[in-house]
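Action item from last meeting closed. Structure (131 res):
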């Protein structure tokens, strides 16, 4: 009985070379997705998903969270939950805002409108103060 309990408590080391090769394959998949002829939203979603898998592999095996107690793993996930919460709070504003790009935004249209109003001779050039 003592021999069976000793083998059950021993930690089995994972095959780090296989995990490293798996991470290389996932990085290659990211390169394929980045240059795929699909929409930017699909590319972003796929890249975030693949990066999430890579992060979990690194955290579980190379950081050793797989072999730690569950409470320590939950403590490590708190920053992930906080970042997710912050993204969800900013997402509605980011989805509605129209940012000016290459002279086509709100600021550029205001500048064009002012330019059309002020076209012609500059009235300030003929200004002479009265003494």
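Sequence:
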């Amino acid at each position: 009985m003592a021999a069976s309990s000793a083998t059950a408590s021993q930690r089995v080391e994972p095959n780090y070379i296989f995990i490293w090769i798996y991470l290389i394959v996932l990085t290659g998949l990211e390169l394929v997705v980045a240059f795929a002829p699909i929409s930017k939203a699909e590319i972003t979603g796929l890249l975030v998903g693949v990066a999430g898998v890579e992060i979990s592999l690194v955290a579980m095996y190379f950081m050793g969270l797989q072999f730690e107690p569950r409470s320590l793993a939950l403590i490590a996930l708190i920053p992930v939950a906080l970042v997710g919460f912050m993204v969800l709070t900013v997402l509605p504003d980011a989805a509605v805002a129209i940012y000016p790009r290459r002279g086509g935004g709100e600021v550029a249209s205001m500048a064009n409108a002012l330019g059309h109003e002020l076209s012609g001779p500059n009235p300030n050039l003929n200004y002479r103060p009265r003494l």
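Note appended to the action item: The two ends are 112 Å apart (CA to CA).
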